[in-house]
């Protein structure tokens, strides 16, 4: 790991890129915290709903990921939802847009750099630390600091809150390297769904009709894109032999290969079947009918 760390930091362009991604994720978190503090959690949820679709758009434009008519429709529905809010409420949903744009750009840039998730987060943290320390000293100077031994319980909560935001970010950055920026972003819809229900039922934030309509536009976009992911899997399964199918799955979803390492020497019979399907190892004890039954 340290050899990878040294290799990355030797290039000034990498340092600059990680500084940008560190700033982007910092802006994202600060905006989200502001939304929670000012009872605008629904707006933050709106942003996290928009972000995966925006990531799909960035993936199409900058990473040349595949697209079709339905994916474009999903992107247009998000744009329509934003314009609807602008026309009906007379204001730009800046919290949601800031959350969506910063996180989408973060994912786009991180996917461009070949680096382990943990090493990338370490470099970002080191680069942002001077800014965080400066802000911390500013709060102390103005008697606004609450992270201290004088507030042990609150400091404990703040410490674990930071850790709870770091772990999902680690797995997210790992995810879009394995399965692509679009599919990884779709999994992230669990976040805004939880935020939506928290804001609505726990924090009792008002949900006016116009905002509900904009959410409906975005939910339809989510359903359309998730259906496209289902079609991709279905097309992979339908084509070719069992070996060709799994090879195609490996090409589109490299995370599958990781399961091979994880299960090695644990379930010998199933592993022989798994490796036979992967084309890595053949076994006379594995009948073709068994492979086809696994495929179905």
Outline the secondary-structure elements.
Blueprint: H1 2-9, H2 12-37, H3 41-62, H4 69-89, H5 94-112, H6 117-141, H7 152-179, H8 181-187, H9 190-202, H10 209-238, H11 242-252, H12 255-263, H13 268-278, H14 288-295
Helix pairs in contact: 2-3, 2-5, 2-6, 3-4, 3-5, 3-8, 3-9, 3-10, 4-10, 7-8, 10-11
What does this 3D model show about the protein?
The structure is a single chain. This protein is an all-alpha fold and 296 residues long. It is 80% helix and 0% strand. It has 14 helices and no strands. The chain has helices spanning 2-9, 12-37, 41-62, 69-89, 94-112, 117-141, 152-179, 181-187, 190-202, 209-238, 242-252, 255-263, 268-278, 288-295. α3 (41-62) runs antiparallel to α4 and α10 (209-238) runs antiparallel to α11 (242-252). The longest helix is centred in the C-terminal third of the chain and has 30 residues, at 209-238. The radius of gyration is 23 Å and the shape is globular. The two termini are 40 Å apart. The model is unreliable at 253-291 (pLDDT under 50).
At a glance:
With about 300 residues, the chain is mainly α. About 80% of the residues lie in helices and about 0% in strands. The chain is globular and about 50 Å long.
Helix and strand composition category: mainly alpha
Strand element count: 0
How far apart, in Å, are the first and last alpha carbons? 40 Å
What is the string of helix and strand elements? HHHHHHHHHHHHHH
Q: Which word captures the global form?
A: globular
> In which range does the helix fraction lie?
over 70%
Number of helices: 14
Overall pLDDT score: 75
Sheet with the most strands, sense and barrel status: none
Low-confidence spans:
253-291
Beta strand %: under 5%
- Provide the gyration radius in Å: 23 Å
């Amino acid at each position: 790991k340290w050899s990878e760390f040294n290799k990355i930091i030797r290039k000034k362009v990498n340092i600059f890129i990680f500084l940008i991604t560190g700033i982007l994720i910092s802006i994202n978190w600060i905006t989200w915290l502001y939304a929670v503090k000012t009872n605008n959690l629904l707006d933050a949820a709106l942003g996290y709903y928009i972000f995966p679709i925006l990531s799909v758009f960035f993936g199409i434009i900058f990473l040349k990921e595949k697209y079709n008519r339905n994916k474009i429709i999903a992107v247009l529905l998000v744009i329509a939802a934003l314009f609807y809010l602008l026309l009906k409420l007379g204001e730009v949903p800046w919290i949601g847009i800031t959350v969506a744009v910063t996180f989408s750009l973060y994912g786009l840039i991180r996917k461009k750099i070949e680096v382990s998730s943990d090493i990338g987060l370490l470099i970002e943290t080191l680069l942002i630390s001077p800014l965080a320390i400066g802000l911390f000293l500013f709060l102390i100077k103005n008697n606004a600091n609450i992270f201290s031994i004088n507030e042990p319980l609150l400091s404990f909560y703040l410490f674990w809150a930071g850790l709870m935001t770091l772990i999902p970010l680690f797995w997210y950055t790992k995810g879009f390297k394995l399965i692509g920026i679009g599919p990884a972003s779709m999994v992230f819809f669990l976040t805004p769904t939880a935020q939506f229900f928290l804001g609505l039922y726990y924090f009792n934030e008002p949900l006016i009709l116009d905002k509900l309509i904009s959410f409906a536009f975005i939910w339809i976009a989510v359903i359309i894109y998730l259906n496209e992911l289902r079609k991709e899997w279905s097309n992979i399964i339908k084509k070719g032999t069992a070996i060709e199918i799994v090879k195609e799955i490996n090409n589109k979803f490299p995370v599958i290969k990781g399961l091979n390492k994880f299960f090695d020497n644990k379930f010998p019979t199933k592993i022989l079947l798994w490796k036979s399907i992967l084309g890595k190892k053949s076994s006379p004890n594995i009948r073709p009918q068994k492979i086809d039954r696994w495929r179905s």
